[in-house]
């Protein structure tokens, strides 16, 4: 009988916080920027420079901790994690080992088998390292310290996940929670959310964990799922052929669909942690916690329940709209301006999603304003523009947030409501298409569609198809 194996997975998720400045200095955290322009003596590790904690980092870390059901450490401090690396200017990283800000949390995920909790061991604050840029042409490596000192939280889960499906559900839940808090945009492709996967396998029913490996370089949910499947198979093959799994850090190559060893990692690796002498301990009091609790937003689950009660829109729409904080905000703001919820939802679900897909964009990248969407819906309701013109105008709103009223005026797209002019055009179309008129009279309902189309063409698309239809039926 073939052995059955169980996969055991824990994650270390690094999230770049959405502060304007770095964790211990006033330099900009903006993504991009010429190399080494967002730097100062503190974040380049100059001797004698002193770090000062950015209060916003603490606020975001506590907010994420509360949202993930963690205990908040009332007395916490920073430690130095010592290691030499070219992009680590001080030769140590300021992190938290002994007293991390958040501990013992959990988040609920939905899986095929139903609801499940994934434990959070801890969340700690730390600074990011710089970035090495490898120059193939000159055969050298250059260092860019712009990212050095960008604030991170590291969310360390318990080894509670058993499949790629559970890992993705957990990551999506974290990403959604953090985006709703506004603590980070969590863009995997820009590295503002990065996950390292610790994975081991054991025979089904065994109590002991197997030897784990850590996989790095995972910058999309698809890559994470593929890496988990690949590493699971690799470890099973090793055990089946009588070999041992070695504890090591591996790098996943998504193009080749395989991983390779980077360095072996003994548990005894000594970072010589000690409390950072330059930073004072942090005391979190009840008043501070209350302020953060009051500021917590309405999260997705609460939103979904409220939408069901307040707005008459399908559950499928609710699920998609609340799946993105940006989309939910846009929906609510447009409805608040007087637009009908179902109509707003239709524009978001159909046209917005189509354009996002075509432009390879995320909902968080939407730039148009609720005012312009509400104005467009109002113009369509008043029949000032017909549905095909509305779609054309919406594409412009999506692209560059144009004012729909101005755009329609400038481009002369208003629906022609002059009955006389319309009747004249309809009469001409009837006269020019005797065959279709004959078809309609002999019971072919479809023929009227052709005549409507010809009239729209003659009116350059600026008429109301319903009105044309009615007039054709009268005249025929």
TrEMBL record:
PROSITE patterns membership: GATB
Q: Name one Pfam family in it.
A: GatB_Yqey
User: What are its E.C. numbers?
Assistant: 6.3.5.-
The reply on keyword Transmembrane helix is no
Q: Which PANTHER family match?
A: GLUTAMYL-TRNA GLN AMIDOTRANSFERASE SUBUNIT B MITOCHONDRIAL AND PROKARYOTIC PET112-RELATED (PTHR11659), GLUTAMYL-TRNA(GLN) AMIDOTRANSFERASE SUBUNIT B, MITOCHONDRIAL (PTHR11659:SF0)
- The source's domain of life comes to Bacteria
Q: Which InterPro entries match?
A: Asn/Gln-tRNA_amidoTrfase_suB/E (IPR017959), Asn/Gln-tRNA_Trfase_suB/E_cat (IPR006075), Asn/Gln_amidotransferase (IPR018027), Asn/Gln_tRNA_amidoTrase-B-like (IPR003789), GatB (IPR004413), GatB_C_1 (IPR042114), GatB_Yqey_C_2 (IPR023168), Gln-tRNA_amidoTrfase_suB_CS (IPR017958)
Assembly and interactions?
Heterotrimer of A, B and C subunits.
Tell me which UniProt keywords the record has, alphabetically.
Answer: ATP-binding, Ligase, Nucleotide-binding, Protein biosynthesis
Q: Where is the Asn/Gln amidotransferase domain?
A: 329-476
| Annotated protein name in UniProt | Aspartyl/glutamyl-tRNA(Asn/Gln) amidotransferase subunit B
Catalyses: L-glutamyl-tRNA(Gln) + L-glutamine + ATP + H2O = L-glutaminyl-tRNA(Gln) + L-glutamate + ADP + phosphate + H(+); L-aspartyl-tRNA(Asn) + L-glutamine + ATP + H2O = L-asparaginyl-tRNA(Asn) + L-glutamate + ADP + phosphate + 2 H(+)
């Amino acid at each position: 009988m073939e052995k059955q194996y169980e996969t055991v997975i824990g994650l270390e998720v690094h999230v770049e916080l959405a502060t304007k400045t770095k964790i211990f200095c006033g330099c900009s955290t903006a993504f991009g920027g010429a190399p080494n322009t967002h730097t100062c003596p503190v974040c380049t590790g100059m001797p004698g420079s002193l770090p000062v904690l950015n209060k916003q980092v603490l606020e975001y870390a506590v907010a994420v901790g509360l949202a993930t059901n963690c205990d908040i450490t009332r007395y916490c401090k920073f430690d130095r994690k010592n290691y030499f690396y070219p992009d680590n200017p001080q030769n140590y990283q300021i992190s938290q080992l002994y007293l991390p800000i958040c501990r013992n949390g959990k988040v609920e995920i939905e899986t095929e088998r139903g609801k499940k909790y994934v434990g959070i061991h801890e969340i700690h604050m730390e600074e990011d390292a710089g970035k090495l840029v490898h120059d193939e042409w000159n055969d050298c490596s250059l260092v860019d310290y712009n990212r050095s000192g960008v604030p991170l939280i590291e969310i360390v889960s318990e080894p509670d996940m058993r499949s790629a499906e559970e890992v993705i559900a957990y990551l999506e839940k974290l990403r959604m929670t953090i985006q709703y808090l506004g603590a980070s945009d969590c863009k995997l492709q820009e590295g503002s959310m990065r996950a390292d996967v610790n994975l081991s396998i054991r025979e089904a029913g065994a109590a002991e964990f197997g030897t784990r490996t850590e996989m790095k370089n995972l910058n999309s949910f698809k890559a994470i799922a593929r890496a988990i499947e690949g590493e699971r198979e690799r470890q099973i093959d090793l055990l089946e052929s009588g070999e041992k799994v070695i504890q090591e850090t591996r790098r996943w190559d998504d193009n080749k669909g395989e991983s390779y060893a980077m360095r072996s990692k003994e548990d005894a690796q000594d970072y010589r942690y000690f409390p950072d002498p330059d930073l004072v301990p942090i005391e979190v009091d009840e008043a501070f916690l209350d302020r953060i609790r009051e500021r917590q937003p309405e999260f997705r689950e609460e939103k979904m329940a409220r939408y069901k009660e307040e707005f008459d829109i399908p559950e499928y729409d609710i699920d998609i709209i609340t799946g993105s904080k940006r989309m939910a905000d846009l929906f609510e703001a447009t409805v608040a301006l007087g637009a009908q919820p179902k109509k707003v939802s239709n524009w978001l679900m159909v046209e917005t999603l189509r354009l996002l897909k075509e432009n390879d964009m995320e909902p968080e990248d939407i730039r148009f304003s609720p005012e312009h969407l509400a104005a467009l819906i109002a113009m369509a309701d008043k029949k000032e523009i017909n549905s095909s013109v509305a779609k054309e105008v919406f594409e412009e709103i999506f692209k560059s947030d144009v004012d729909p009223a101005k755009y329609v005026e400038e481009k002369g797209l208003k629906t022609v409501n002059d009955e006389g002019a319309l009747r004249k055009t309809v009469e001409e179309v009837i006269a020019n298409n005797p065959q279709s008129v004959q078809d309609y009279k002999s019971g072919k309902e479809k023929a009227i569609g052709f005549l409507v189309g010809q009239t729209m063409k003659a009116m350059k698309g600026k008429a109301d198809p319903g009105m044309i239809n009615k007039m054709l039926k009268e005249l025929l």
